[in-house]
Design goal:
2 helices, globular, alpha+beta, 4 strands, single chain
Amino acid sequence: MIRFFITQKILGVSYGQSSETSGEQSDEQSYGLAYIDNGIKVTINDITPEREKIEFIAEVFNREQPEPIHIEEILENFLMNFTDF
């Protein structure tokens, strides 16, 4: 089972997170995902500046468990069609 985590980049510094944001937030932030695949940490940065979108994506990925080879394509589809959700 792969567990997906939200990552946050603030002012050029990345912080890994699994739940609530710690510390103060800046107007300049971007969210991504991280996961462990066969013992290797994979991080996809700068997916969206909107925390609600990345929380939704992480929730769906944790529930549906997509194969790692499909993750980037799924992310692209989510972001291109996000208004449909």
